[in-house]
Amino acid sequence: MGAGWHDADVPALLGVIHVNIDPALRIGSLTIHWYGIMYAVAFWAGWRFAVTPFLSRRGIPRNEIDRMITWVIIFGLIGGRLYYVLQSDLLYYVTHPQHILAVWEGGMAFFGAIIAGFTTILVLALRRGYSYWLLVDAAVLFAVVGQPIGRIGNVINGDILGYQSSLPWATAYDNANAVLQPGYHLGVAYQPAAVYEALGTILIGLVLWTLLRRRVADGVMAITYIALYAVSQFAIFFLRGSEPAIFLGLKQAQWTAIGMLVIGVPVLVVLWRRWRPGERAAHDEPAPRTVSEAAV
Question: Which helix (H) or strand (E) holds 91?
Fold first, then answer.
């Protein structure tokens, strides 16, 4: 399975969790994938409970919010899928190009979505005349609300797994339609890396919620998110077995995380200090936090 920590030889004390859910919901001739359903719910929740209340309170019209988030979602999906292909079994996708955009088979890398999303937001900010820092703050709130929901689709699919394990929360897939990556097998228990991903994002969301309550300056939440997400990915990918190591025992996502921490975050901080926005308290309306913002 490659380099990384695993505990396949540790005796199981409480057994493992078995998942026997068909990744596709079939209604007559219609096939709907749970993965797509979870992503649709994630997008709706991020739009409804994070982006819309956050930007509306800061004077951006609803139609502008809807237009911008649509473009960010489109390019974020493309970026997330392409980065997943790059960090996975690239040879497989080169020889099977028809699967590159087959998102229903599972597989999205959030680093790719971040890079594509932040780039799209920059273009929108320049074209529409809005603060870039304000828009990226809205984007990271969208991420911490929606991403854990989207990971439910990964759990149902079985497409993000760790190394073979006998821990009590290890997960074995029994459904013949499970979307297991090459090298994984039905009935074998693995660490549920998708669950680790979701829990990590929830913890980051709690940090952002604290910053939101303190009304920090625009951009602080976005930079904090990038730094914490990079740290979480560097740690979690030691447990993820579905991606190969590429150099010095580290995987592509880990090298991207290092790049984010060493280059990306410092660059963002320098740019933020150079074009530092005013404190939110200076331009927020003095209304109490809404239920939607409290949910973030």
Answer: helix 90-95
